[in-house]
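JOB MANIFEST
job_type = single_chain_structure
chain_count = 1
residues = 283
[input]
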Amino acid sequence: MRTIKLVLAYDGSAYAGWQFQPGQPTLQAALERTLEKITGETIRVVASGRTDAGVHALGQVVSFHTASRLPADVLARALNAELPRDMAILSAADAPPGFNARQSACRKRYRYVLHDGPLPNVFERGYAWHCHSRLDVPAMQRAARPLLGRHDFASFETSGSPRETTVRTVFALDVSRDASRDEAGGGENGSDISDRGDRVRVEIEADGFLYNMVRSIVGTLVEVGRGARPETFAGEALAAADRRRAGPKAPAHGLFLLQVEYPPEQGNDECQSTNVEGMTKPE
């Protein structure tokens, strides 16, 4: 049996999440149905992370075993011809024996997109959380600093997925505002509704994430950004190890699984990235 590794992107708006749920549309079910149609096998896939309902991915990684002799690139083209239009296989490759998309992962990076313009952007309503007040990005950056490093993130986990430990290592936590149209050198007055400097990105990279950890961190930082809480809020919540001390959970639709990293097949222990941002669906 071969092990295949897929990298895929998807719009999670129409799904009840990644994981199979009886009677519900899920991304796992859609992919497994398509694999069965192409290979004639009943295949169970393993994802690097089980994204929730409404969450999107730019670089989800999936592994599975198959007896099919189809070359990986042919399999990718066949999948893209049959999958729903809100899913795309970006790459496919034979993986070494023992590779498991979830268990072998050593780092993941998520992006959360916020929009804080005076009016909602109707074209991004399914891909960004509209905040009604202008966010203080520098304050959010300062508030995020205590969350870097290895800590107990129990304050940022919601119930629903018990873990052996709530300790995780956050390698990066960046808050930034996209440049406006004028700052980017395009247009005279920044009238393009999607490019006015009203988009804020929060990117978090860690060795693993607790259930709703990213959305809880974002919700906490937004409380600081809108002036409802002091810049010490996130650090104090972290130290409390109590979910009630942190901010609200951000909505699912602004969250994207950006990339997953794995140890190299040979050599040192540093991760290799599967970042595929900007790639398009193969022809």
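[summary]
DSSP finds five helices and eleven strands in the chain.
The radius of gyration is 20 Å.
exit_status = 0
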